[in-house]
């Protein structure tokens, strides 16, 4: 494990900048709902079929209305044009755009990069949208084969070289690896210790962390905040937005 001099800052105040819309393409209004809530992280499935990228999880759902460009790339690019190159009006608010590759990385990632090159404002070095790959991630030794604006979700179980770690945007893991907790009542003490250790490990690497497959309710959100988890996964975009803006801590 490599200890960075610039450790990840512990989150003391949570806002929608720490909210992560997982399975966002399954929302009634993909991208728009999380964007309206000013979420700091949005994740969509990406499936390659017959040379076209779709924001779907299954081939049967692929249609002209569900292309990645139509649901995400074009509206995001247009928002940046409206905001003088920024994704949000505030110049210090970023969007982590996470692409969950459903089809193999060897084919899907080159196709994604080709499409992204059409939207130059999404790939500039000072862009307030950060591109992150999860799902079918290429092997760490292949990270440097892709453009520098492409980053990857890392695993707490992999020992990355310093060069590979530079391409890791955040650490992600399934919460179910550490607990069978259903989100009701307190998190079991031993499970809490296990989760706390992996959070501390990620922060020691200078990376933020999120947990997939977590219960999606207020009690879980509060528990994750108490554990200093950096991104709060949810499928309840509007509810989490309201909670983070108004609920007492």
Q: How does this structure look, described?
A:
This protein has 249 residues and is α/β, with parallel strands linked by helices. It has 7 helices and 9 strands. It has helices at residues 32-36, 68-82, 105-116, 162-165, 189-204, 218-226, 237-246; strands at residues 19-21, 41-49, 52-54, 95-101, 129-135, 150-154, 168-174, 208-212, 232-234. Strands 1, 2, 3, 4, 5, 6, 7, 8 and 9 form a 9-stranded mixed sheet that branches. Mean pLDDT is 94; it is low at 1-8.
Give the arrangement of secondary structure elements.
Layout lengths: L18 E3 L10 H5 L4 E9 L2 E3 L13 H15 L12 E7 L3 H12 L12 E7 L14 E5 L7 H4 L2 E7 L14 H16 L3 E5 L5 H9 L5 E3 L2 H10 L3
Parallel strand pairs: 1-2, 1-9, 2-4, 4-5, 5-6, 6-7, 7-8
Antiparallel strand pairs: 2-3
Descriptive tags:
disordered N terminus; alpha/beta; 249 residues
- Give the ordered list of helices and strands: EHEEHEHEEHEHEHEH
Beta-strand content bin: 15-25%
Helix % is: 25-40%
Distance between the termini: 33 Å
Helical stretch tally: 7
What would you call the shape?
Answer: globular
Structural Rg: 18 Å
Please report the total strand number as a whole number: 9
Give the rounded overall mean pLDDT. Answer: 94
Low-confidence stretches: 1-8
Task: Indicate the structural class.
Answer: alpha/beta
Quaternary class: single chain
Largest sheet: 9 strands, mixed
